[in-house]
TrEMBL record:
InterPro entries: TOD1_MUCI70_glycTrfase_dom (IPR048354). The chain crosses the membrane at residues 253-270. Residues 49-217 form the TOD1/MUCI70 glycosyltransferase-like domain. This is TOD1/MUCI70 glycosyltransferase-like domain-containing protein. Keywords: Membrane, Transmembrane, Transmembrane helix. Pfam families: TOD1_MUCI70 (PF04765).
Amino acid sequence: MLKLKPAHDLIDNFNKKRLVYTCVFGDYDRVLKPLNKLKNTDYFIITDNSEMTVNGWQTLLVDSRKFKTPKAANLYYRALIHKVLSGYDTSIYIDGNIKILNGIHEFLIPFENSGCTLGLYPHESRSTVEEEVDACISSGKVLNANDLIDEYQGYLQRGFPDKSGLIETGVIFKNHVTDSLDEPMEVWWQCFSQRSTRDQISLPYVLWKTNPSVYLFDQSYRKYKATFLISPHKHDRRYSELYKLLRPRSRDGVLWFLIYAPFACFHVLFKHANVIRSKVVHRLNGIKVSKG
């Protein structure tokens, strides 16, 4: 495992052809325009939604019906994008709810200079797959806890030591030039397609089994708030609709935010107008009954 190099080593190679991509299936995320785009870089959304068009991104429409779930479709293209879109030297995968702000080159250039196969970020708070399994079960992120436990125990039975750390898979750098990219990504897809549980459970096993060279950044991408803005998923019920609209725009500048905020408020009110109207009518009727 390598560590992040100092910023003064950041000498860009503008001859490299780069790809930034995200995968959104099942209307899971609201993708937004990157704040600052890299030069000589294509930005693609891989999706099954024919209506998804986002300023700053190209849309690659695919048929997801051959996959068991939207998550399976996401993992397939996340892992095997180099077999779908060719001609790139480097790619950066980001989850659909992550917005790139500034300074992505501070991670990209050291990764490219390292010659490693993958560039990965450690988990923010957990360091073993066992901890991740427990967290997924306790938070209700899996439909069948026994399937997740069986998968983990299967990896242990094959010799997986579970002591090499845990990876957050929301941002992944890939070296498309090396021949060593195929095996780990194929195995990752096979593990997920067989189990369809959680991608962060299988990736440490895959890295141990296939042993690709990994450029490990010094902390979770969640810590780099100047570069990555993380918003709630589109249907996350823990957050209000207004917050989910305003959060992704919060770093676009004060003027833009002031312009967008009233629109977001109007959008939420209009969307929930019938619900609000029925509550008001119900309350008024209740007042009339009590007076009578």
